[in-house]
Amino acid sequence: MDWKVTAMYFSATGTTKKIIVGIAEKLSENINGERKVTIQDFTLPDSRQEPKQFTANDIVVFGVPVYAGRVPNVLLKYLNSVAGNGALAIAVTVYGNRNYDDALIELTDILQANGFTVIAGGAFIGEHSFSKTLAKNRPDDQDMAIVKEFAHQLKVKLIDQNSVEPVEVSGNRPYRYYYIPKNEQGEPVDIRKVTPKTNDRCTNCGLCTRLCPMGSIDSEEASKMKGICIKCGACVKSCPVNAKYYDDKNYIRHKEELEIDFSHRREPELFI
Ligand SMILES: Cc1cc2nc3c(=O)[nH]c(=O)nc-3n(C[C@H](O)[C@H](O)[C@H](O)COP(=O)(O)O)c2cc1C
């Protein structure tokens, strides 16, 4: 059987994209003899307008970053509109070295409920969206070697063992509630309304406006917000003149706490 391999992902700062495209290309090479894959990137708002349909010939390597230990809730409506129609899926979450908590099991359940058979899962690590030091430059070469190993194991399951058994991944049902940051007193703080500031280095080049996954940055005046901010890091990390930053004290405290408490390198986990 000739499989059509698709790399499908949301990736504001590119770490999920690197893992998903890496798995999909290697898998395609292993099972079809060529690295060619279809890219279905649903990071930008326009790309989430059309519902996506697959068929039984498709294998979809499907990835989202972990937000607050779960699948990003701003994506749930779109994710529920993706129809598997008997396609196979590999569910992958990418997290910033704290924990993926129940994100992988949640993504697996969503895909199964939408008509995919999820034959494997993976939890990988990417540089944390809030930080330039936590899991810095990951996925790195070691991670990409595990991507290659995962693609090999997928080929063994699919072709050598001719198996499309659904996978069990780690996580709890019911899922844990969204991870909530705390202040110095250990009290929960709500940083959902926090938005980035813009300093006077901004030239209004328009890059952050084009990259914002929520379409929230004004196209004439980049310091103006016209929608919600999910703190995905796209504007801060992509700005060529470092004009975007957060100065909210709870956000900064949370980021610094993560950098200290979760500096120990975590390794990818594969479920197959
Ligand atoms: C709002 C938000 C919440 C996050 N929550 C977690 C988390 O619970 N655990 C974790 O390890 N990383 C967390 N991260 C970090 C991202 O999962 C991680 O940096 C990921 O690699 C980003 O993927 P991307 O580069 O494809 O955007 C969070 C990031 C954001 C923006």
UniProtKB/TrEMBL annotation:
<keyword id="KW-0411">Iron-sulfur</keyword>
<feature type="domain" description="Flavodoxin-like">
    <location>
        <begin position="5"/>
        <end position="155"/>
    </location>
</feature>
<feature type="domain" description="4Fe-4S ferredoxin-type">
    <location>
        <begin position="192"/>
        <end position="222"/>
    </location>
</feature>
<keyword id="KW-0479">Metal-binding</keyword>
<dbReference type="InterPro" id="IPR047964">
    <property type="entry name" value="EFR1-like"/>
</dbReference>
<dbReference type="Pfam" id="PF13237">
    <property type="entry name" value="Fer4_10"/>
</dbReference>
<dbReference type="Pfam" id="PF12724">
    <property type="entry name" value="Flavodoxin_5"/>
</dbReference>
<protein>
    <submittedName>
        <fullName>Flavodoxin</fullName>
    </submittedName>
</protein>
<dbReference type="InterPro" id="IPR017896">
    <property type="entry name" value="4Fe4S_Fe-S-bd"/>
</dbReference>
<dbReference type="InterPro" id="IPR017900">
    <property type="entry name" value="4Fe4S_Fe_S_CS"/>
</dbReference>
<dbReference type="InterPro" id="IPR008254">
    <property type="entry name" value="Flavodoxin/NO_synth"/>
</dbReference>
<dbReference type="InterPro" id="IPR029039">
    <property type="entry name" value="Flavoprotein-like_sf"/>
</dbReference>
<keyword id="KW-0408">Iron</keyword>
<dbReference type="InterPro" id="IPR026816">
    <property type="entry name" value="Flavodoxin_dom"/>
</dbReference>
<feature type="domain" description="4Fe-4S ferredoxin-type">
    <location>
        <begin position="229"/>
        <end position="249"/>
    </location>
</feature>
